[in-house]
């Protein structure tokens, strides 16, 4: 796992070396914030229409705008570091870029998307809950750590140690559900198994240095809340 973490860290920060002209946040915001425009262009180019098309646009497009609002209101310090040109391109083209393929499979007609209205309603509910969880957790972490350092053990973090990752999984999982195709599932499986697993492991190791970690880890779940 530590070898994977080192590789991910190199690709995300130092790939190919050289100058560091941009913050990682700028790269992430460009991709996420540009989703609505990219998706509208795809819909126009393919002449796409139908419930799955417009719901995909509404969900994924609005999430990009929500992300920009979040970054303006309470930016994550982890995204403010400057990275090399190579690392920025890796983030944009290899890690974040494939997310646009989730919409592409529907807009291009590769998949008709989910047609069942109850299923689409379920996807919208999962998306809304995921956004609330991710935004709530990031806001709580940002404002709490401005006042005190150490573990955050209440609120969104009372039952699960990484509610922001859980929220993001729910968000992108809802997009894959609307797409109703194997390609988005494959894309998410690769990104989650590599980047999410690596980042969560590194975060756990950092948190474990704080007093009370053992008891906190025992009563909470890593991604799924412990109800007891």
Tell me the quaternary state.
single chain
| Shape assignment | globular
Rg: 18 Å
Share in helix = 55-70%
Estimated structural class: mainly alpha
Low-confidence segments, given as residue ranges, are: none
Largest sheet: 2 strands, antiparallel
Helical segment count: 10
Strand content: under 5%
> Could you tell me the mean pLDDT?
94
N-to-C CA distance: 29 Å
Following the backbone from N to C, one meets helices and strands in this order, namely HEHHHEHHHHHH
| Domain module tally | 1
Number of strands: 2
The largest sheet has its strands arranged as 1-2
Describe this structure in words.
The chain has one domain (2-219). The chain is 70% helix and 2% strand. It has ten helices and two strands, in the order αβαααβαααααα. Strands 1-2 form a two-stranded antiparallel sheet. Helix 2 (24-33) runs antiparallel to helix 4 (51-73), helix 3 runs parallel beside helix 6 (100-107) and helix 4 (51-73) runs parallel beside helix 7 (117-147). The longest helix is centred in the middle third of the chain and has 31 residues, at 117-147. The mean pLDDT is 94.
In short:
By secondary structure, the chain is mainly α.
Protein traits:
mainly alpha; globular
Question: What's the topology here?
Answer:
Layout: H1 2-14, E1 22-23, H2 24-33, H3 35-46, H4 51-73, E2 82-83, H5 85-96, H6 100-107, H7 117-147, H8 163-179, H9 182-207, H10 213-219
Antiparallel strand pairs: 1-2
